[in-house]
Amino acid sequence: MEVKFNQNSVCVIDSYLLDAKQDIKTVLGDIKADSRCPKEVLSRSDISLYREWKAHNRLYKWHLFQSHTKDVNLGYEPWYRRLCYFFLAF
After folding, report:
1. Which tens digit of pLDDT belongs to each residue from 5-57?
2. What angle is formed at CA 22 by the lines to CA 20 and CA 27, rounded to 5 degrees?
3. pLDDT the model gives residue 90
4. d(CA 15, CA 70)
5. Phi/psi class of residue 86: alpha, beta or left (left: φ > 0; alpha: ψ in -120 to 50)?
6. What phi, psi does 25 have (nearest 5°)?
7. In angstroms, rounded to a whole number, what is the distance separating the alpha carbons of residues 35 and 26?
8. Best CA proximity match to 10, nearest among 59, 44, 54, 60
9. What is the DSSP letter of 78?
10. Between the CA of residue 86 and those of 47, 83, 89, what are the distances in Å?
């Protein structure tokens, strides 16, 4: 998995390729343990980050916004997006 650390976010390239719950949680744990991880990611719960990743995967598999959903860009998200991720992650 290719991970790019930015000033306010972390981008996981081709995140749609990883779909198993434990694999995603492992990568998220590695991201949060990295010293380059921005506070916008560290301040979010593991389940919130996991739901965002799963929501991106679901949209990608539904062939919706594939150019935007093939990668997941983790950072600050407003409450209404996190609410959408909650429903999409099931």
Report:
1. 999 999 999 999 999 999 999 999 999 999 999 999 999 999 999 999 999 99
2. 95
3. 84
4. 6
5. alpha
6. -65, -35
7. 16
8. 44
9. -
10. 9, 5, 6
